[in-house]
Amino acid sequence: MSEQTRTxxxxxxxxxxxxxxxxxxxxPKALRALNGTPMLIHAVRAxxxxxxxxxxxVVAPPDGAPEVKNLLDxxxxxxxxxxxxxxxxxxxxxxxxxxxxxxxxNIGTVLVHDAARPLVPVDTVDAVIAAVFDGAPxxxxxxxLADTVKEVEPREKGEPEPVVxxxxxARLRAVQTPQGFDRGTLVRAHETVAVSGxxxxxxxxxxxxxxxxxxxxxxxxxAFKVTRPLDLLLAEAVLARRRANDGF
Length: 248
Ligand SMILES: Nc1ccn([C@@H]2O[C@H](COP(=O)(O)OP(=O)(O)OP(=O)(O)O)[C@@H](O)[C@H]2O)c(=O)n1
Ligand SMILES: C[C@](O)(CO)[C@H](O)COP(=O)(O)O
Hints:
Structural class: alpha/beta
Distance between the termini: 36 Å
CATH superfamily: Spore Coat Polysaccharide Biosynthesis Protein SpsA, Chain A
CATH topology: Spore Coat Polysaccharide Biosynthesis Protein SpsA, Chain A
Shape: globular
Function: Catalyzes the formation of 4-diphosphocytidyl-2-C-methyl-D-erythritol from CTP and 2-C-methyl-D-erythritol 4-phosphate (MEP).
Largest sheet: 8 strands, mixed
Radius of gyration: 18 Å
Pathway: Isoprenoid biosynthesis; isopentenyl diphosphate biosynthesis via DXP pathway; isopentenyl diphosphate from 1-deoxy-D-xylulose 5-phosphate: step 2/6
Number of domains: 1
Helix content: 25-40%
Low-confidence stretches: none
Number of strands: 12
CATH architecture: Alpha-Beta Complex
Keywords: Isoprene biosynthesis, Nucleotidyltransferase, Transferase
Strand content: 15-25%
Site (Positions MEP for the nucleophilic attack): 169, 225
EC number: 2.7.7.60
Bound molecules: cytidine-5'-triphosphate, the ligand C[C@](O)(CO)[C@H](O)COP(=O)(O)O
């Protein structure tokens, strides 16, 4: 563990600047309601539920930072949790980089968590943080796959795609967030790793490109990403089950 990780505090960067194109027309995805509360607020509360987290940096839609700041001001967080809002960029990678730039000096451990994963349980957050505190420079929560995966030769939409390979399913994991990092390692990855096109699809992948080790801890089925309309129904159902179980 670096000196900065050992002595520093823990912050979470929450990229929330995406439009949510796959969810369909409407407000930016992070601002859409789940059980009457914006998805972003669920995500922020899920991270602030960890006693280790002292700062949350929300990366807002580029033209929506004041609105997001007002939203956070209006929703209570634990007293121990500070928050900042910064405007995001064109890709998730760019938004995370802008969030990292806003971190104060005293932060040694950084988690990156999608606003689009509003229901991650605190035990998963704590497991990621514990693995970083134990010395791993990069940690990802992940689950085994239910489906068999094929690698294909991509074709135009609608055309049959030739299969190239079938990776051994037992060795594959579906990766979630929050992903946890020693701050220096993540900053170095964002400063040095160039990914063309839509950018890196996760932060741990950038650390892998640095050649630094990345480890996996168990993820959770409720940490799924709200991507398509069906995911909204699932999220509402999970919240209804929580309310029925424990009055959440
Ligand atoms: N320019 C971007 C793009 C994405 N994100 C964030 O990255 C997370 C994961 O991205 P995804 O689920 O793909 O969200 P969107 O980009 O909004 O979805 P879509 O691709 O359907 O538009 C989300 O919390 C999203 O707000 C971001 O901060 N900045
Ligand atoms: C970071 C991530 O959630 C890990 O599964 C995922 O890669 C984000 O992808 P998206 O296409 O930006 O939603």
